[in-house]
Amino acid sequence: AQSVTQLDSHVSVSEGTPVLLRCNYSSSYSPSLFWYVQHPNKGLQLLLKYTSAATLVKGINGFEAEFKKSETSFHLTKPSAHMSDAAEYFCVVTRYSGGYQKVTFGTGTKLQVIP
Amino acid sequence: DAGVTQSPTHLIKTRGQQVTLRCSPKSGHDTVSWYQQALGQGPQFIFQYYEEEERQRGNFPDRFSGHQFPNYSSELNVNALLLGDSALYLCASSFIRDRVVEQYFGPGTRLTVT
């Protein structure tokens, strides 16, 4: 079984300040973890992924995430928020087993960036 | 690479009608999944197609059906539309690399049922 918990439904930051979006996971297997971003009325864009290589993963637009097995976390960070970062962010865990692809979404975190 | 494409972009239908949405996967991807995303909610898994067969299904009624073609493209059909079917419908294609599922999403089709 696997699950994903995004700890904050809304996060508000000022432009130029750091961003932290929190994600905890539960998985019986070594997880593959992803962060997607969704701007209003758009599809989901892959930001970054962890697939059991380096624990610190760099993505697009200056985002990065660190896989911490001891804390079962995969938090998304960015040093300095930009207005264009305002969007909804989804943490996702996937697993391939027995010929089936299992994909589990978190409930999403809406990021507001204040000018 | 065109990525995942969906058509149409927007659609308005009347309650009781039927609708067909289309998806072309990213090149090299053999699996297509469909999601429904209501306003303000996260994506809800409808079903997944692989090798032209429905492999997994979420908690959606039989009014929702699909098809996958030999070229891996897919259709989502919804019969007897209800007002509650109004949503953004997302198609995602995926592939397996080193036993890791990587999923890429299309831009979605916005369905409005009046």
Number of strands of chain A: 12
Cα(first) to Cα(last) distance of chain B is 36 Å
Largest sheet of chain A: 6 strands, mixed
Radius of gyration of chain A: 14 Å
**Broad structural category of chain B:** mainly beta
- The number of distinct helices of chain B, counting runs of at least 4 residues, comes to 0
Based on DSSP secondary structure assignment, what is the total number of beta strands of chain B? Answer: 11
> How does the helix and strand content of chain A classify structurally?
mainly beta
Distance between the termini of chain A: 41 Å
What is the mean pLDDT of chain B? 94
Shape of chain B: globular
Oligomeric composition of the shown chains? heterodimer
**H/E series of chain B:** EEEEEEEEEEE
Radius of gyration from the alpha-carbon trace of chain B, in angstroms = 13 Å
Q: Please give the share of residues in helix of chain A.
A: under 10%
Task: Write structural notes for this entry.
The complex is a heterodimer of chains A (115) and B (114). Chain A is mainly beta and 115 residues long. Chain A is built from no helices and twelve strands. Chain A has strands at residues 2-6, 10-14, 19-21, 23-27, 32-38, 44-50, 56-58, 64-68, 73-78, 87-97, 100-105, 109-114. In chain A, the strands form three sheets. In chain A, strands 2, 5, 6, 10, 11 and 12 form a six-stranded mixed sheet that branches. In chain A, strands 3-9-8-7 form a four-stranded antiparallel sheet, with no helix packed on it. In chain A, a hairpin with a 5-residue loop joins strand 5 (32-38) and strand 6. Chain B has 114 residues and is an all-beta fold. In chain B, 0% of the residues lie in helices and 56% in strands. Chain B has strands spanning 5-7, 10-13, 19-24, 31-37, 44-50, 53-57, 64-68, 74-78, 87-97, 100-105, 109-113. In chain B, the strands form two sheets. In chain B, strands 2, 4, 5, 6, 9, 10 and 11 form a seven-stranded mixed sheet that branches. In chain B, strands 1-3-8-7 form a four-stranded antiparallel sheet, with no helix packed on it. Chain B is globular. Chain B starts with a strand and ends with a strand. The relative contact order of chain B is 0.32. The chains are: A mainly beta (115), B mainly beta (114). Chain A binds chain B through residues 32, 34, 36, 41-46, 49, 51-52, 90, 92, 94-96, 99-103, 105-108, and chain B through 4, 6, 31, 33, 42-43, 45, 48, 50, 55-56, 88, 90, 92, 94, 96, 98-108, 110.
